[in-house]
């Protein structure tokens, strides 16, 4: 039976979510955090145009298995054709797609992706609306945003997305210019007053206590963690630091799902950040191959992979290319000029 993510978000409890993280929220990590109270996982951000055009990109960027649910695939997209094409390809293997409108990295914004889309509400509206027209519910189409400096613009954007048919919104409560400053909880709370859609709050979730505080204060339906869950994959189950049983699980998972050394090692670097003394951490972080990592963990913690005879059966994805091969000319379904003028006034760069 297909998981209904919107129904999950409407449950009377805090829904716990693993953020989309480039290089890190891959299948192996999603498999791990699901064992520690994580309700919904996102893939890393995937470039929709590459995914649509390149078999190699599809094979490298998207892997899943039968237990990898509920799953949302996040795309960076700036054209309807690319977003719809990529969404229709992954739809049989996930529960929804998400549009990245929050990535503040220079390369993404220069290319017209991520937070650059925050000032293009008509484009974001069209991207969401076309997915909603083509893929039936309960499949979700969501958007992850950051706050704009003028909260009125953020409210207007969210209301546009609501009208376009978005399923839910994730709000990282910082502006694209902010980095390590505390989140803007006041504006997040204000936004909640104007948006009827389910909201997921994101930012500064480094412990279960942080998550519960943010959930309560923001009156959101869910809470998302990124760096916090990377450092402690057991965060949502109440552990203050990564428990050794979680490290053991990581060794077991990566012995059954093929994992590149860099991914295998980097996750352990994050997990051990708060529990290894500095001298040993420097040594561990500079290890260069899997055998030396396993030897270190066995000598230091007396843990080793429990090798299972059968590797995990990955889902064989047969992507439907029909939409990409027979692209229809895109029709603008939004012909209300007064509404467009309203948007233009709200998002006037000089205002």
Automatic annotation (TrEMBL):
GO BP term (any one)? mRNA processing
Q: Quick check: keyword Cell inner membrane in the entry? A: no
Its needed co-factors are:
FMN
Taken from the record, one Pfam family name reads Dus
Q: Where is the DUS-like FMN-binding domain?
A: 18-276
Keyword list (alphabetical) reads: Flavoprotein, FMN, mRNA processing, NAD, NADP, Oxidoreductase, tRNA processing
Name one molecular function that GO assigns to this entry. tRNA-dihydrouridine20b synthase activity
Signal peptide range? none
Matching PANTHER family, A to Z?
TRNA-DIHYDROURIDINE SYNTHASE, TRNA-DIHYDROURIDINE(20A_20B) SYNTHASE [NAD(P)+]-LIKE
Protein name according to UniProt: tRNA-dihydrouridine(20a/20b) synthase [NAD(P)+]
The lineage, from the top, is:
Eukaryota, Metazoa, Ecdysozoa, Arthropoda, Hexapoda
């Amino acid at each position: 039976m297909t998981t209904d993510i919107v129904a999950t978000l409407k449950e009377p409890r805090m829904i716990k979510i693993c953020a989309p993280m480039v290089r890190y929220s891959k299948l192996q990590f999603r498999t791990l955090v699901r064992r520690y109270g994580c309700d919904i996982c996102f893939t890393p951000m995937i470039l929709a145009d590459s995914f649509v055009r390149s078999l190699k990109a599809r094979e490298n960027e998207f892997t899943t298995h039968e237990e990898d649910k509920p799953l949302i695939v996040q795309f960076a997209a700036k054209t309807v054709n690319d977003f719809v094409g990529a969404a229709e390809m992954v739809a049989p293997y996930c529960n929804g797609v998400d549009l990245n409108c929050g990535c503040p990295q220079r390369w993404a914004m220069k290319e017209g992706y991520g937070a650059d889309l925050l000032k293009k509400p008509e484009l974001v509206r069209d991207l969401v609306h076309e997915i909603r027209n083509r893929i039936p519910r309960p499949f979700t189409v969501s958007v992850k945003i950051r706050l704009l400096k003028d909260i009125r613009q953020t409210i207007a954007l969210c209301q546009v997305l609501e009208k376009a048919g978005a399923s839910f919104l994730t709000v990282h409560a910082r502006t694209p210019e902010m980095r390590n400053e505390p989140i803007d909880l006041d504006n997040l709370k204000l936004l909640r007053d104007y948006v009827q859609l389910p909201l997921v709050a994101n930012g500064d979730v480094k412990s279960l206590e942080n998550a519960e505080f943010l959930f309560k204060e923001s009156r959101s339906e869910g809470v998302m963690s990124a760096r916090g869950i990377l450092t402690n994959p057991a965060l949502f189950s109440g552990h203050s630091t990564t428990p050794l049983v979680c490290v053991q699980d990581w060794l077991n998972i990566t012995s059954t799902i093929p994992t590149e050394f860099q991914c295998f090692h980097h996750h352990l670097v994050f997990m051990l950040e708060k529990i290894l003394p500095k001298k040993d951490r420097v040594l561990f972080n500079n290890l260069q191959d899997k055998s030396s990592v396993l030897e270190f963990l066995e000598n230091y913690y007396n843990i080793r992979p429990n090798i299972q005879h059968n590797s995990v059966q990955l889902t064989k994805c047969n992507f439907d290319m029909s939409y990409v091969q027979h692209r229809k000319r895109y029709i603008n379904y939004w012909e209300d000029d007064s509404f467009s003028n309203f948007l233009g006034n709200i998002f006037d760069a000089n205002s």
